[in-house]
Design brief:
By secondary structure, the protein is an alpha+beta fold. It has two domains: 97 residues; 277 residues. The protein contains eleven helices and eleven strands. A hairpin with a 5-residue loop joins strand 3 and strand 4. The longest helix is centred in the N-terminal third of the chain and has 62 residues. It is elongated and about 140 Å long. The two termini are 22 Å apart.
Length: 485
């Protein structure tokens, strides 16, 4: 080989080594960057006529484990949806309280019964009458607060749905633009790895919201759909439509049209109902919370409030009341009407006739809600009747509860137990989903940038660079000798 040929070979080797070192450094610097795909330099021999004239970079390719990534994205959606559900169930469990826990519906029901027992033994005692008032008021206040908390969860779900729909629309538009840019740059034989990294990050954000699969299209573009068959992007991005609600009350629901569903390009695809094209992921979980989980919890709370009100609204308990008069527990001052049960837990209140703060009198707890004047101070029959009402085994008239006859406190225990069981099941499944996702992430990272391997590659590049530099140095020395002759 001529000296010129050797010089060209060495020079091309220096250029390739310098660019390869830059690529390796970029890999190491982004080893922990989400969405980054490892770059790999592909080399090709160059020819001058039929003679080798060095080496050149044919391409810098982006390496990702597509199979593991696809599995990780599906696991990501499942884990995100389960986490949302578990978090809400934890909040519901805290609001309802565990059986026997201070401040729980069960404990407050027992406290009301205990205060009535104490008042029965000393019916003339005003402090004991006041204790009954406070216990009844605490139970009512707790029901009101829990009912409001459940509706707040529905409003949170509605807001989160709106946010996620905006994110979906925005990301799909960005991915469509990146698809176009990648196609243009690839046609011009320019580097597209950075554009692909950004596209992967956007796709991964969508994978939290809905389960997705991606499909390769020509010129480096991709299409996106869900396992359920909804096409999110194929050339043009799909458009999601959702209208955020201002205020959500117990009476508002999806079926009546009072709350917005979800549409894709005008087609109804509301998730969270089971079997839909977008089920799975956090978006479906929020719809399920807004339209099923929270309304079911509110229904059980209303059933408990109804059971409480009807126990004390029984005409046999208080002979001073006329037919149609409210009992100790009212619907915002009116008698409870079973036809108006929805949202009752948020409206239940203590009868103003026994509350001095509302112009009532404590002695009416002893003598009757409609009594015009105090009766015999030793009369404890009404207290005994109210204790009997609480201890009576009555089957729940509504709510998703077993039809077995139960006391009021037992009914509260059953409701709390159902929520705790659902939370435990969701938490167990969530732990499995999280472990699976973590393992897939580890496998994906293992197929990505390995810093040890990159440093070994860098050492080989340094040796190649030194060898080519030595060739140039030797040729330079030879030329100097020739010039001296």
């Amino acid at each position: 080989m001529s000296m010129l040929g050797s010089l060209l070979n060495a020079y091309s080797g220096l250029r390739v080594a310098a660019r390869s070192a830059e690529v390796v450094s970029q890999n190491v610097a982004n080893a922990m960057t989400d969405g980054y795909g490892r770059r790999e330099v592909e080399l090709v021999a160059t020819l001058a006529g039929r003679q080798p004239s060095g080496v050149a970079i044919a391409a810098i390719t982006r390496k990702v484990d597509s199979t593991t990534m696809a599995s990780r994205r599906l696991a990501q959606a499942e884990s995100a949806g389960q986490k949302v559900r578990t978090d809400i169930l934890k909040r519901l469990e805290k609001e309802f309280g565990l059986p026997g826990e201070k401040g729980s519906l069960s404990a407050l029901s027992v406290a009301l019964e205990s205060s009535l027992v104490a008042a029965q033994s000393r019916p003339e005692s005003q402090p004991r009458q006041q204790r009954v008032l406070f216990a009844a008021r605490d139970l009512v206040d707790r029901l009101n607060r829990v009912a409001q908390a459940v509706q707040d969860m529905r409003m949170q779900a509605d807001s989160e749905i709106s946010r996620q729909v905006d994110l979906l629309n925005g990301n799909l538009r960005k991915i469509a633009r990146l698809n176009r840019d990648i196609a243009i740059e690839k046609s011009a034989r320019r580097q597209i790895s950075g554009l692909q990294d950004e596209r992967q990050r956007l796709v991964d954000q969508i994978a939290d919201i809905v389960p997705i699969r991606t499909y390769a299209r020509e010129k480096g573009q991709i299409a996106i759909s869900t396992p359920g068959g909804a096409v999110l992007l194929d050339g043009l991005p799909a458009t999601f439509e959702f209208s955020k609600s201002g205020v959500i009350t117990a009476q508002l629901n999806l079926g009546s049209g009072a709350l917005s569903g979800l549409r894709i390009n005008g087609r109804e695809v509301t998730p969270g109902q089971g079997g839909g094209p977008l089920d799975g992921g956090s978006l479906a979980a929020w719809f399920n919370i807004r339209d099923r989980l929270a309304p079911d919890a509110a229904s059980q709370l209303d059933a408990f409030a109804r059971n409480l009100a009807e126990r004390f609204q029984d005409p046999a308990i208080d002979q001073t009341r006329s037919a149609g008069d409210p009992g100790l527990f009212t619907d915002a001052g009116a008698p409870f009407d079973p036809a108006n049960e929805i949202g009752f837990a948020g409206r239940i209140s203590l009868n103003a006739a026994v509350d001095p703060g509302q112009g009532g009198a404590l002695w009416r707890l002893r003598d009757g809600l409609a009594a015009a004047s105090p009766g015999p101070s030793g009369n404890n029959s009404l207290f005994g009747a109210m204790i009997g009402a609480l201890q009576a085994r009555v089957p729940p008239a509504s709510g998703q509860l077993a039809p077995e006859p139960v006391t009021l406190s037992r009914m509260a225990d059953n409701i709390a137990g159902q929520i705790a069981t659902s939370r435990l099941e969701s938490q167990t499944r969530g732990a499995f989903d999280a472990s699976r996702l973590a393992e897939l992430r580890r496998n994906e990272r293992a197929a990505g940038v390995n810093t040890d391997q990159e440093m070994q590659t860098l050492m080989l590049i340094e040796k190649a660079y030194a060898a080519n530099a030595r060739v140039i140095s030797t040729i330079d020395a030879m030329l100097k000798k020739l010039m001296e002759i």
